[in-house]
Amino acid sequence: MGIESITLLIVLALLALMALGLPLGITTLTVSLVTAILYFGERAGFFIVAANVSEVLHKYELIAVPFFVFMANVLERSGIAKSLFDSMAIMGGRFRGSVAVQTCIVAVVLAAMSGIMGGEIVMLGLIALPQMLRLGYDRKLSIGIICAAGALATLIPPSVVLIIYGLAAQVSITKLFAASAVPGLILAALYITYILVRVRLSPAMAPIYDIPETGLPFFKRIKYLKGVILPGVLIGAVLGVIYSGVATVTEAAAVGAIGALAVAAARKELTWTMARDAMRQTVLTVGSIIWLVLGAVSLIGIYNRIGGGEFLRGLLTALDVAPIWVIVVMMLIVMVLGTFLEWIAIIFITVPIFAPVVVDLGYDPVWFGVLFAMNIQIYYLSPPFGPACFFLKSVAPKDIQLQEIFAAVLPFIALQAVGLFLVLFIPELALWLPAMLD
Amino acid sequence: DTLNIQTSFNAGDFSTQYLTENWLPKISEMTEGRIEIVLTPNGSVVPARETPEAVAAGVLDGDFTSVNYFSGLEPAYAIMGDLISGYETPEQMLDFCREGGGEAVMQKAADAVTGGEVKVVACGPYSRESLPARVPIRTFEDLKGKKIRSPEGLAAAVFQAAGASPVSIPFSEVFGALEKGIVDAADASAYVNNDATGIHDVAPYPLYPGIHSMPSMQFTVNKEKWEVLSEADRKALRDWWYEAMYAMAAEVAKQDAALAARDDAADDIQVIDWAKEDRDQLRAVAREQWEIFAEKSGLAKEALDANIAYMTKIGLFQE
Amino acid sequence: MKRSLAIYAGLIDRFSVFIGQACSILLFTCIAVSAWEVVMRYGFDRPTVWTIELAMALCASAWVLSVGYVTQRNRHISITMLELLVGPRVWRLFRLFQMLISIGAIFVLLLALWDPAVKALSRVEHSGTAMNSIQPTILKVLLAIGCVLYLLQLLANVIHWAQGTESEVDGGH
Ligand code: NA
Ligand code: NA
């Protein structure tokens, strides 16, 4: 059987098992076990799955996830999150959609202190989502904002995706970071524009916070900023710890988790029960996430070994089109692989094949790296394998189903595609900042 | 026959491209089309540290991997994988592997971690890593108190013995750690690779030629696959690998030197080359740590004795 | 028979919850250890070589060992779109199917992990780093233990399913 048919069978099997309601980790695990045993026999098949599955536990970057989850749980349980969003709602006054816009801005700030997508999504999911729902915001709009804006963690530097791309393609990581900042802000601006247009068209999606304080003139509302102070200090401290060279990005997340406890204590809301429950909730959340990653990672070695890479190379060399369309096809391939592989696997499989072609065609691999990272943004959100949606699901209120999350992110996927095409056809959007810094 | 071989090179590394373009076609020439090699990059099929068993199980037909990855399985791999501050050029150690008994030690190590299902065809390094630093480290004395990212056991022990503080930071955080000043220096890769990833933008005082690391690789083939090859093809594989490594060592040295000269002439980067007495001082400190490390297993001791005998023979140590 | 099955399921439930909640201590220690490294390195200029490996081992243990707790609370993430289409009675059969496939997959994974775990234990694999801990051995063995915990709880969930004593279903198993 050819690799084309195997690829197709893998995708179909995944879709079928997912649709039947199997846990997603079990879905990918089942497909990788079956493929491995059919293709390599028992001994080699078992070995390849076991080796890749064990490696997940060696991924240092993942340990930031529980740090963020715990930090968010403490902020949420101690009432800090509620005061923060009350303040934001009052400061936004009677401007429709102000809290949604502010959430996007908070997400951009958080993105500058996180290099991984999961940490930021669960943080926003725990803190912002219940508050937006409490303030009467439309469910789908709120969910979409959190998934899309939370995913910016790996486009706005620091970013593990860009670091791994830089290492795989041997491209300057400084330049990748500089090049991705503007596209990251462009996506955020697109999200904000969409929110403003959307809530204007259907005002019911974003009710005005109808309490007397929001009607006050701006200078009188300033005093309600106090709810922002403590979380602001915490975020400032974490950013300061990162950018002054005190701690690595992962360590800074641990400092933030301890800081959240300190902030709760400062508000006299730190109790043993609260800390214990926050910790137990963290265990449940990260415990469900790790099995997702395990399953997704175990497919990688198998797909590579049965010739996934060769298959893609064949697809590209068969093309006889203008260079820019070769890039477009590469982007489409990344999107398709994103339906069933984990992003690290996608980088491992595609970058070795794509990077030399990109250079041969006369394009800048830094620009391609930014496109790649933007494409990973789409991968995070898009069903059926949309990790951002899974991460949000792991912390969202119980009645929010995964399918509702998938429906909610669709407009934002369209916006991400718009952003991707902007940078695709106007490379200067990415390249002017690194050029200026040179 | 096609051999699927995983390397510990990253896809975009200079070495991957160099081998793919220049050397993969040669092996089929040398064997008149009987052997083709497909190289897959680091971690693409199994994690690097699992390659010996992957070769044994037949998941891979062979590996072309830095053996330091296996030092947790058998301490001899730490000695054979990177004898910190030992040899001066990759060619010296390639010669040790080919003629000085290196291959035999590597075969014993391979047999110790697998069930004798892996044939070691050849071994040796191709480059001396430079040491990117964000502050000038000009002499042996300057090492004192410097925070140096060095996750490998032997390297950390040598730096510690020389008065530096080894820091363990995962690879993905090295760049940020150098940029922000969390560490003063970090082990990375050959100058040409560090140049490509832009490390010198954040660590403008690279030590080149390097003072510590020369990671050595192994070329292995699954025993069953090996046994069906003709004597001529086996010889061709071994010759091909050494020829490729010597050629790559020469090419990397040339490129490293050219880039270092270019950077040294520019204002924002200052390349530091240690004097011989500083290198000798570090080698003396390092040798004590090698001896301590070699106590960890009989095979490690054997590996170190073979290395020291060869180094004495070529004049790196006095009798 | 029915009674002893119910007793098994009840015991496993409590066991999973106990282990899972005990994992909070591991996670909190992981946070504390990572923050400690910052204090030692930045505050006292004395970086350690052990915090990364310890933090990772703690975190990985919590991830893996909490699996029974996650399964008991039905917190594994899945798509439940078909539930609306097929109705609750058919969906109930689907849930049995989901649990059986899960049991099969995890059992095969356990078989796959068994030899590497036994091998790691018998020769004690080290990390080869500056700390040279036995982290690789611990993690390989832990994964196998995690699969056993997962299986035990899945079996308990099947019993709950058959006896109609399921806890609240939250979109997965
Ligand atoms: Na970021
Ligand atoms: Na996706």
TrEMBL record, chain A:
Any Pfam family matching the protein: DctM
Keywords, alphabetical: Cell inner membrane, Cell membrane, Membrane, Transmembrane, Transmembrane helix, Transport
Lineage top rank: taxon: Bacteria
Bilayer topology: Multi-pass membrane protein
Broad class of where this protein is predominantly found: membrane
ATP-binding recorded as keyword: no
All copies of domain TRAP C4-dicarboxylate transport system permease DctM subunit, residue ranges: 12-429
InterPro entries per UniProt: DctM (IPR010656), TRAP_DctM (IPR004681)
TM segment ranges: 62-80, 100-129, 141-165, 177-197, 228-246, 282-303, 315-333, 340-359, 365-392, 404-426
Family per similarity comment: Belongs to the TRAP transporter large permease family.
PANTHER family xref list: SIALIC ACID TRAP TRANSPORTER PERMEASE PROTEIN SIAT-RELATED (PTHR33362), SLL1103 PROTEIN (PTHR33362:SF7)
Matches recorded under NCBIfam families: dctM
Protein name in the entry: TRAP transporter large permease protein
Organism: Nitratireductor thuwali
UniProtKB/TrEMBL annotation, chain C:
Recorded superkingdom: Bacteria
A Pfam cross-reference name: DctQ
InterPro entries the record matches: DctQ (IPR055348), TRAP_DctQ (IPR007387)
Bilayer topology annotation: Multi-pass membrane protein
Primary site of residence: membrane
Compartment annotation: Cell inner membrane
Key words, A-Z: Cell inner membrane, Cell membrane, Membrane, Transmembrane, Transmembrane helix, Transport
TM stretches of this protein: 12-36, 48-72, 93-114, 134-152
Domain Tripartite ATP-independent periplasmic transporters DctQ component: 31-163
Family note: Belongs to the TRAP transporter small permease family.
Subunit structure: The complex comprises the extracytoplasmic solute receptor protein and the two transmembrane proteins.
Role according to the record: Part of the tripartite ATP-independent periplasmic (TRAP) transport system.
Protein name: TRAP transporter small permease protein
